[in-house]
Design goal:
The chain has 24 helices and 11 strands. The chain is α+β, with helices and mostly antiparallel strands. A hairpin with a 5-residue loop joins strand 8 and strand 9. The protein is elongated.
């Protein structure tokens, strides 16, 4: 592989006009496609194989025209102090508002609170339920404006009015902190390279790659039903890995220049060595993201594949666009050790002349590696104990999906949620919909009555509506109001209790009882994700373990990498629980409401963090492997790997943390949580696991770390990540001719 990538790098350097034209054309094509594509429609959230989804599908089949997936709104009214909603003036205001809402073009129905028992016992709060024909994502802006205007007119009349539900669904905003994250990345690159030109190359290529990826997602959003969160996560991951991959190749290019090689040769060798690490690091990320398909949640699968596509683009751009841009930059990209004009006067590459017998000054990475090699056991124990302590909160992990109760208090949805809780109890915000399928029953009406009676006898139930049968009389719906909030453990227990009671009804009458609704759907999602976590770990970690055996030609190094990843991801989950569930530093992170951790968080974090963790493992340890293969002793190879790689890996980690942390400012709670989780996971993995635990373990293992059974060594393909083929081909200070370029093109 190193030889192929070497030729690719030289070809891209030499044919830079052609390479740049291709990428600019792709960016333009994706941009035109995004601009001309129809707006994204309904991003359906289905969970195949769950009872809640089965009941939802049954509702659509047995209650045609009911628009089961239509948007809903609850317009909540509160009377001024000392007044009641039943007072004549307040009642007239509400009835006028209901009439205005009913005139909407997309409105299916509006329930008058005075005819539907929707006034609180103390008479201070009432609500009107609005049902729409279209989903929240498909509602026309004029329909949303009409809803807000009707609410505002009631406010002008003296009532407190808030609107809940998904009818006012808005595209999440990432906030200014995303730009700050990119700015921090730019500063780190300038400090690392000492040159604006060298620092600008990774940023430029990452932005081009993300532009192509996100524009492609936007262009396909309507056809593939991709939600807005998909493009945000693709942007988050694409920016982070795009900058990192380009950073490693530019750094290796400068190191090759410092050894006296010509620029075209240096570009080829940089792509052949660092580019090989980029390919395998990118493969681990892609495997982890595509592997999310095993969960069998379509939305999660689409998110993973879209982000994986953006990572693949980042790899291809790093391998081709970076050497092309290096060709354009020419002498403005300095060799390693030479300062640019930005941070100091330019000087010739290479080390400063040393006094006779003087030892060259070691960099910080070298000094740290020597310390770890001298005290490996102490460093290992300190790192493991520290991560173990950070992981302790993860033992209290509670999972759920965000609802209006997790919205900021500044939103009308959150204020409506609070008003309903105040007037009707916390469980009113998460009603359970019980669907009774009596098609196989001889007495459907008796079955409906039996289910209603069974539910009323359960603990934790505030109210049960009478069965509402369909036109055929073979299916009925019953609405159950719990006495606990939707995301509580008590509500989850009630859902399971209703399902258990339904089993008895089925045995007696033959009717099947199913529980659905947003609350039951969230519970089923959490359970499905929990059940899928172990198979997902086995698949992703297993595939990546095999891949790393090929890369490092070792058994213990990939095993150490996998165990280190488990430490960092558990510590990161502990930090997420501490902030978003326990409320530690919640004000600093902009978390206005603590509660259960998003159900998708553990499995999504496992997938993404594993891929990113393997990035640092590959980038850092391949340098050690390279030194070991070229004859250095095991302990010295660890030091050499840090000498060449620690500075760049540190810069890459800081950049990735900055990019992820930028998304903490998002208005979408899921994006905020993922941004924080990934940022803290990168910190733990890069600075504790890869910078401390990895060298400590390798120092303890010595040359045994690179042991591989002879039979397996013969069976594995030789991918030559360390570039041994380039070294044995000569000193490389010459250049390949046109014949090599033509050979690569034919390949």
């Amino acid at each position: 592989m190193a030889t192929f990538l070497y030729k690719l790098g030289r070809l891209a350097f030499r044919r830079r006009h052609f390479v740049a034209l291709i990428w600019v054309a792709l960016l333009t094509l994706a941009g035109v496609g995004a601009a001309s594509a129809p707006p994204a429609g309904n991003s359906s959230f289905s969970i195949p194989g769950t009872e809640a989804q089965k009941a939802f599908d049954l509702l659509e089949q047995r209650f045609p025209g009911a628009a089961a997936d239509g948007a809903t709104a609850r317009v909540v009214f509160k009377a001024p102090s000392g007044e009641k909603m039943t007072d004549a003036d307040n009642k007239a205001t509400v009835e006028k508002t209901v009439g205005d809402l009913a005139d909407g073009s997309e409105v299916a129905s509006v329930a008058d609170p005075y005819k539907g028992d929707a006034v609180s016992e103390d008479g201070t709060i009432a609500y009107a339920s609005v049902k729409y024909d279209a989903s929240g994502m498909e509602l026309e802006e004029t329909t949303k404006d009409a809803l807000e205007d009707a609410a505002q007119q009631a406010r002008d009349a003296g009532l407190t009015v808030e609107v809940g539900g998904d009818a006012l669904h808005a595209v999440p905003e990432t906030g200014a902190t995303e730009v700050i994250g990119i700015a921090v990345a730019a500063v780190v690159l300038v400090i690392t390279f000492g040159s604006l030109v060298s620092a600008g190359l990774p940023l430029l290529t990452a932005l081009i790659g993300v532009g192509i990826g996100v524009s492609s997602i936007t262009a396909l959003a309507s056809a593939l039903e991709l939600g807005s969160t998909t493009s945000i996560l693709a942007m988050m991951i694409g920016l982070a890995v795009g900058i990192d991959y380009a950073l490693f190749i530019v750094s290796r290019y400068r190191a090759e220049l410092a050894e006296g090689r010509e620029r075209e040769e240096a570009a080829g060798r940089a792509v052949g060595t660092a580019g090989s690490a980029v390919v395998f690091a990118g493969l681990t990320v892609v495997i982890a993201l595509v592997g999310l398909a095993v969960v069998n949640i379509p939305m999660l699968t689409k998110m993973g594949i879209a982000a994986a596509g953006t990572v693949a683009i980042a790899v291809l751009i790093a391998l081709t666009m970076i050497p092309a841009l290096l060709g354009y930059a020419g002498r403005r990209v300095k060799p390693a050790g030479a300062k640019g004009r930005l941070l100091g006067r330019a000087r010739k590459s290479g080390p400063k002349p040393q006094e006779p017998g003087a030892r060259p000054k070691d960099n910080l990475g070298t000094r740290w590696a020597r310390f770890v090699v001298r005290r490996p056991l102490a460093v290992l124990l300190l790192g493991v104990i520290g991560l173990g302590a950070a992981a302790v909160p993860a033992t209290s992990l509670e999972l759920g999906l965000p609802d209006d109760g997790s919205q900021p208090t500044s939103t009308t949805q959150r204020r409506a949620y609070d008003l309903l809780s105040e007037g009707f109890g916390p469980g009113f915000n998460g009603p359970l919909v019980v669907v009774v399928d009596a098609k196989g029953s001889d007495a459907p009406k008796d079955a409906f009555t039996d289910v209603e009676k069974q539910i009323k006898d359960l603990d934790g139930v505030v109210a049960v509506t009478p069965p509402a049968p369909n036109k055929g009389g073979d299916t009925a719906t019953i609405t159950v109001i719990p006495d606990s909030k939707p995301s509580s453990v008590q509500t989850e227990d009630l859902v399971h209790a209703i399902r258990d009671a339904g089993g008895d009804v089925k045995a007696d009458t033959g009717a099947e009882t199913l529980v659905t609704g947003s609350t039951a759907m969230n519970i089923d999602v959490s359970e499905k994700l929990n059940d899928a976590l172990v198979p997902y770990l086995v698949l992703v970690v297993g595939l990546a373990f095999l891949l790393l055996i090929v890369v490092f030609r070792s058994i213990l190094v990939p095993l150490k990498a996998a165990l280190g990843f488990l430490l960092s991801v558990m510590a990161a989950l502990g930090a997420v629980v501490a902030v978003f569930q326990w409320g530690w530093l919640s004000g600093l992170m902009g978390v206005e409401e603590t509660g259960p951790v998003m159900s998708m968080m553990p499995i999504f974090m496992v997938g993404v963090v594993f891929g990113l963790a393997m990035d640092y493992e590959v980038f850092l340890v391949t340098r050690m492997r390279e030194a070991f293969v070229h004859g250095e002793k095991a302990h010295q190879a660890v030091v050499t790997g840090f000498k060449h790689g620690a500075r760049v890996v540190t810069a890459a980690a800081v950049i990735m943390m900055a990019v992820f942390a930028g998304f903490i400012g998002s208005s979408e709670s899921m994006v905020k949580m993922i941004g924080f989780g990934l940022a803290i996971a990168v910190f733990f993995d890069a600075f504790v696991v890869r910078m401390a635990i990895v060298p400590a373990v390798l120092a303890l293992l010595g040359k045994r770390a690179w042991w591989l059974p002879k039979w397996l060594d013969r069976a594995l393909p030789n991918v030559d990540v360390e570039g041994e083929g380039l070294r044995t081909a000569g000193d490389g200070k010459g250049g390949s001719g046109p014949d090599e370029d033509r050979e690569l093109v034919r390949a």
